[in-house]
Amino acid sequence: MGLDMFLNGEKHICSDDEVEIIVKPDILNGYRIKRIVIELLYWRKSNQIHQWFVKNIQKGKDDCKEYYVEKEQLQKLYETICSVLLNHTKAKTLLPSQDGFFFGGPEYDEYYFQDLEETKTGLEKLFNSDILKNFSVYYHSSW
């Protein structure tokens, strides 16, 4: 068990022409695809990132529900991460770690900063794609 966190892209399909997917016809057996969900980013016990989402997206509610995330909010997270990576002394103020059962360690160690680097890279990949133009983005966690 532990803190698992997901940033997913979701697209509702209104017509068969809206999306091109290669699927063996016998798998669908006449059923229509109505929604596509893709995993954009996944974290494990990155409690500082989770804390940011709880504070900035979930209005302080840490309830494992799914929350809509706007592109501007992702940009704010990215800028915050970049600021901390440039000056590690800002970590406790801008991206504080969070204690919690199964949440991982609260230390500001190599793992803390590795999570930030990986998140920064993942967000850059997302910003440089067309995903944000075509998919709604949601964050949720579980533990």
Walk me through what this model shows.
The mean pLDDT is 91. α3 (71-86) crosses α5 (110-127). Helix content is 39%, strand content 20%. By secondary structure, the chain is of the alpha+beta class. A 4-stranded antiparallel β-sheet has the order 2-1-4-3. The radius of gyration is 17 Å and the shape is elongated. The chain has helices at 25-28, 47-56, 71-86, 91-94, 110-127, 131-134; strands at 4-12, 35-44, 67-69, 136-142. It has one domain (4-142).
Keywords:
alpha+beta, 4-stranded antiparallel sheet, 39% helix, 6 helices, 20% strand, 143 residues
Briefly characterize the structure.
Helix content is 39%, strand content 20%.
The rounded distance between the terminal residues' Cα atoms is: 6 Å
Mass-distribution shape? elongated
**Proportion of residues in extended strands:** 15-25%
Sheet bearing the most strands, described? Answer: 4 strands, antiparallel
- Strand neighbour order, sheet with most strands: 2-1-4-3
Compute the number of strand runs. 4
Summing up helix and strand content along with how strands pair, one would put the structural category as: alpha+beta
Oligomer description: single chain
Spans of at least 5 consecutive residues with low confidence: none
Q: What's the mean pLDDT score?
A: 91
Order of helices and strands: EHEHEHHHHE
Number of domains: 1
Radius of gyration: 17 Å
Please, how many helices?
6
